[in-house]
TrEMBL record:
Its cofactor is Mn(2+). Keywords: Hydrolase, Manganese, Metal-binding, Polyamine biosynthesis, Putrescine biosynthesis, Spermidine biosynthesis. Binds 2 manganese ions per subunit. The keyword Translocase does not apply. This is Agmatinase.
Length: 291
């Protein structure tokens, strides 16, 4: 599937009618084939779009309006149910098309494994790429129960591809096993535990001028703010701190070249606060990171 093919479903608020003049392309990756606890993140992209209808179009944080940035919501990639290898290949092919056209890819997940082919595609164009990873989990496993294609492995794969010293993780409060934290210490990966905004602000000057890919797992938020996720972890950050982090990146000198927001599983949150928060984060990303 091509990102410029006709799409008749729901779109993120203020999406342009065509892709030609869009600087950013929003696309959904409705995959949850490898989750180890609660499935349902494949429903995340469309629910984020639906929640965006309730957004104000002006951001008082950034003093920008959604009319100030051109983006096109291309809909969801039609991924083959239950086939992670083929799904990853399709996401990579899709991202390659967006990057080739010089547009900013903004992916909506889906489980966190969908980040891996996006980083691969971005790295092909930017060999000096750095990755900012905001998450409750380290995602540094080599495999999960013998399966290397797992939502617990994308950051390990990124480290092995671009060099662990180019990966910066924030908000980590769960790893899965001790080996993940040992790997972080020994590999040169930067890891800030429990917090996001403060350590991120300290690191951003070191990344000035570099191309940066940002991946945000919604479970970095405390379940009080985002219960609608597959692997919720107590002790997380607030929605306000997540916004502070997004704005810190927007006001820095890093060159954000792509991003994703993953692991929204709306069925576990009848209050809809998770998708409401996610849609607001997407608005701020569009206004702050798409130059």
């Amino acid at each position: 599937m091509r990102f410029d093919e006709a799409y008749s479903g729901k779109v993120f608020i203020k999406s342009r009618p065509t892709h030609e003049d869009a600087k950013a392309i929003i696309f959904g990756m409705p995959m949850d084939w490898t989750v180890s606890f609660r499935p349902g993140s494949r429903f995340g992209p469309n629910r984020i779009r639906e929640a965006s209808i309730g957004l104000e179009e002006y951001s008082p944080y950034l003093d920008r309006h959604l009319e100030d940035v051109s983006y096109f919501d291309a809909g969801d990639i039609p991924l083959p149910f239950g086939n992670p290898a083929r799904s990853i290949a399709m996401i990579r092919e899709y991202a390659d098309q967006i990057i080739e056209k010089g547009k900013f890819p903004l992916g909506l997940g889906g489980e966190h494994l969908v980040t891996w082919p996006l980083i691969e595609a971005i790295y092909q164009k930017y060999p000096d790429l750095a990755v900012i990873h905001i998450d409750a989990h380290a995602d540094l496993r080599v495999d999960y129960e013998g399966e290397p294609l797992s939502h617990s492995t994308p950051i390990r794969k990124a480290c092995e591809k671009i060099g662990a010293e180019n990966v910066y993780s924030f908000g980590i409060r769960s790893g899965g096993d001790r080996d993940e934290f040992r790997y972080a210490e020994e590999s040169g990966l930067y890891m800030a535990k429990f917090e996001v905004a403060k350590p991120l602000k300290e690191i951003l000057p070191k990344l000035a001028g570099r191309p940066v890919y940002v991946t945000i797992d919604i479970d970095v938020l405390d379940p009080a703010f985002a219960p609608g996720t597959g692997t919720a972890e107590a002790g997380g950050i607030s929605s306000r701190e997540m916004l502070e982090a997004i704005h810190a990146i927007a006001q820095s000198d890093v060159h954000v070249v792509g991003a994703d927001l993953v692991e929204v599983a709306p069925n576990y949150d009848p209050t809809e606060q998770t998708v409401i928060a996610a849609s607001k984060f997407v608005r701020e990303i569009l206004l702050g990171w798409v130059k």
